[in-house]
Amino acid sequence: MAETDFYIEERDMTLEEVIAALKKYERKYGMTSEEFYEKWKRGETFLVSESVDWRGLFEAYKALNSQNHRGPKE
Amino acid sequence: MPAIYAEYKKHIRALLTEYGRHGILQGVIPIRFSPVEGIPQDEGGIIRGRDPDLVFRDGAKLAFYEKVQVVNNEIHVLNYSYHYERPNGYFFRYEREDTTDPIRKPEYHMHVILDLPHFVAPPVNLEIILKLITNNFYSQDVYSRQILGHEIHLTV
Known about the structure:
heterodimer, A: 74 residues, 3 helices, B: alpha+beta, seven-stranded antiparallel beta sheet, 38% strand, globular
C-alpha cells in the first residue's frame, strides 16, 4: 500500500464550532436542539439518523456553555 | 485517570494515522474533542471524526462519534456511532445508544442501507470498524471483489 497525502487535524472543539454543528442538525430536522433533547429524554426515538451525534453535541454545548459562564480557569 | 483518557486520545490518533500512512484514508483526517457535563474533562468527553468526514481512497466516507469515560482505570465508550458510506449511497452504521425498547432498538445495533430497522449487533470500536471496512472494501482478494460492483434495486 502506497503512502499518500493526509494530515491529522486534531483539536478541541470550541463553543462556536459546537453551536455551528448543532445548527446544521436543527436546520436539517426542523427543530431546536432543546426540542430534540427533550423528545429524546421522553423516549421519542422518532429520529434514527445522526441522533447519537446530535445528543452528544448538545451535551458538549451544555458543558462548554457552562464553562463559558464560569469564565477561564485561574 | 487523566493519563488513561490522554492515552486513549493518542490511540485514536495513532490508529487514524496508520490508515492514512497506508493510503486507505486520504486528505484531512479530523479529530475533535469536547467536554461533557458530569465527566471531568481529563477523564472523558466526546471524540468526533466529522465535519468534514474522513475520506477513503475511493471517495467513501466515515463519520464517527464516541462519548468516553474512564471508569475504574478503563476506557468506557458510553455511546458511539460509526457511519461508513460509499459514493453510491450504500451505508452501514454501528451504534450504541440508550434505549427503552431493546427489541426494536437494541442498545448495540447497526443499520444497513436504510435507517430502519435497528439490527442487533455486537459491541464494536473504531479499530474493529476500520479493520472491517479495510478487509471488506479495500483488499485486493477474491472476497472483496465479490462485494464491490454490485447494483441493488429493491423495495422493502
